[in-house]
Design goal:
This protein has 3 helices and 23 strands. The longest helix has 6 residues, at 76-81. The radius of gyration is 23 Å and the shape is globular. The chain has helices at 76-81, 170-173, 242-245, and strands at 9-20, 23-26, 30-31, 35-42, 46-51, 54-60, 65-71, 86-87, 93-94, 104-110, 118-126, 145-152, 161-164, 187-189, 195-196, 203-205, 207-209, 216-221, 224-225, 231-234, 237-240, 251-259, 265-272. The termini are far apart.
Length: 273
């Protein structure tokens, strides 16, 4: 069924790009809450060549998109990760003229899309936003912030955008945990067995990957990196040392595993007495 209208921008994420010797890698996507509007227009030039008194050849070049992303408030994480603002010891965000903003991938979807298509723009640059505000009147009108953005082709693959319709495939389910790449590797994992401090045992995160050459890149516990001294890695499976796990407070904890290929996986570990 085709869409009649499209509305409800949501699930906007950014993933910082790093590049080394022409090889591009994407960081773990982070959310941009408060998305209001995304407006993009194709960028490119029309090429025309005339011969024999007629249009002999005509084409439109694809240079990506240009437009705006309007959000309620630019997240502090975006200001630091992408715009390069420095956080001093007092918690102030310092904008310096010598800093060049980083490019990033932009992920998003629309609530009104009946096909629930999820989108990725691979090489986005954002200009510094305007600084503006207005005085409060008897009616409070929320002020939004707008980023002027340019989405260019990726420097390694020349891919501009990916659009993935709804499916039960892990590539769709994990779309916002890692930037989707063509013929992407998908990784899945289930929650590990609950940990008992009375009868401690090493904790296994059992991962299944669609790539036989995949490898673990990093492991996080509740957002903090876990030292490799506390880890045992076999292929893409990760085992956490029981001594380390035993130091955690009782309750649920989130383990995030990142890989050299494909999406990260997040599981919940329950720690009990």
């Amino acid at each position: 069924m085709a869409n009649k209208i499209k509305y409800g921008l949501k699930n906007v994420h950014y993933a910082v790009i790093t590049e080394s010797n022409g090889i591009v890698s994407y960081g773990t996507p982070k959310p941009i809450p408060g998305a209001v509007n995304l407006s993009l227009s194709p960028a490119g030039e029309k090429v025309e060549f005339y011969a024999d008194d007629l249009l002999y050849f005509g084409a439109n070049t694809n240079q990506g998109y240009e437009g705006t992303l309007e959000i309620a408030l630019i997240p502090d994480s975006f200001r630091a990760d992408v715009m390069g603002e420095e956080i001093d010891e007092n918690g102030a965000y310092i904008e310096n003229s010598s800093i060049i903003p980083k490019n990033f991938a932009l992920l998003f979807e629309f609530a009104g899309d009946i096909n629930a298509v999820r989108h990725a723009l691979y090489n986005v640059n954002a200009a510094r936003p305007d600084v503006k505000g207005s005085t409060k009147t008897k009616n409070i009108e929320p002020q939004t912030e707008t980023l002027n953005i340019t989405a260019s082709p990726a420097i390694d693959t020349y891919d501009v955008k990916a659009s993935l319709p709804y499916s039960t495939d892990p590539a769709y389910t994990n779309f916002f945990t890692a930037v989707y790449l063509k013929n992407a590797v998908t990784n899945t994992a289930s929650n590990p067995t609950a940990f008992s401090k009375a009868s401690p045992a090493d904790v296994l995160v059992d991962v299944t990957s669609s790539s036989g050459t995949n490898a673990v890149k990093s492991v996080y516990m509740d957002g903090a990196p876990v030292g490799f001294a506390y880890l045992s890695i076999s292929g893409v499976d990760v085992t956490l040392d029981k001594t380390y796990v035993g130091t955690l407070t009782n309750g649920d904890h989130t383990i995030l595993v990142e890989f050299t290929q494909g999406n990260a996986v997040s599981v919940t570990l329950t720690v009990g007495a």
